[in-house]
Amino acid sequence: MSETVHPATLGGPERKSVSAALESLRKAQKPSAGAPAYSRFVNRPLGRMIAAVAFVIGLTPNQVTAISAAFTLAGIAVIAAAPPMIVTGIAAALLLVVGYAFDAADGQLARLRGGGSLAGEWLDHVVDAFKASLLHAAVLVSWFRFGPVDGGMLLVPLGFMVVSAVFFFCMILTDQLRRLHRGSSAMILQRSGPTSALYALAVVPADYGLLCVVFLLFGLPVVFAVLYTALFAANVLVLLVCLVRWFRAVRALD
Length: 254
What we know:
Layout lengths: L6 H4 L7 H9 L10 H21 L3 H21 L4 H27 L5 H29 L8 H28 L14 H6 L5 H7 L6 H33 L1
Helix pairs in contact: 2-3, 3-5, 4-5, 4-6, 5-9, 6-7, 7-10
Family: Belongs to the CDP-alcohol phosphatidyltransferase class-I family.
Keywords: Membrane, Transferase, Transmembrane, Transmembrane helix
InterPro entries: CDP-OH_P_trans, CDP-OH_PTrfase_TM_dom, CDP_ALCOHOL_P_TRANSF_CS
């Protein structure tokens, strides 16, 4: 949310209608390089709509970030506190999905308003860091309180928590080192790497949006446990591949 874009490029604050704001955003989307399927095809369009409405009613990017955090934390609280039932899973999934959509909207709103700020980007990343660990901590609490798994399975959300934290930190650190090397604090918009729909599907196991949707099955504890464990295993593999790619990319900067 830190790139500086002149208001005239995106239509600027004089754009008052939702349709006009949407048209401006369509001309200023981040590249799809590296974006998994749900984030690319579902969450960004949802975030674009939210950003357009937020722009018209006068919300700031930080306010949108706060709304995202509120929905996400509410979903996490439902997972940790309520017994695994169908209604619990639906409520948690909807809250998480809406929170993620607002998370996609804050940066788009910043671009629509003419550029973001370092403080806004900091706030956005802090919220992301919290949810990356808290969501799996909530699963750990739920399984400990309500089952249906044995004690050994509690290592799965614990491991998922570590993988998510490491993945997020390494992704942000790699981006920061690229900025430092380039001598600019502006967010990198032009990234190398695959952009095809096939690639987006291949990396979908690491998509936070997919994890949100999987909680629809939270009320079917055994089914959810199997899918959640499979996602954990897939995320371990994706992390290992990404670590190798990121290390090579940073080494190339030297």
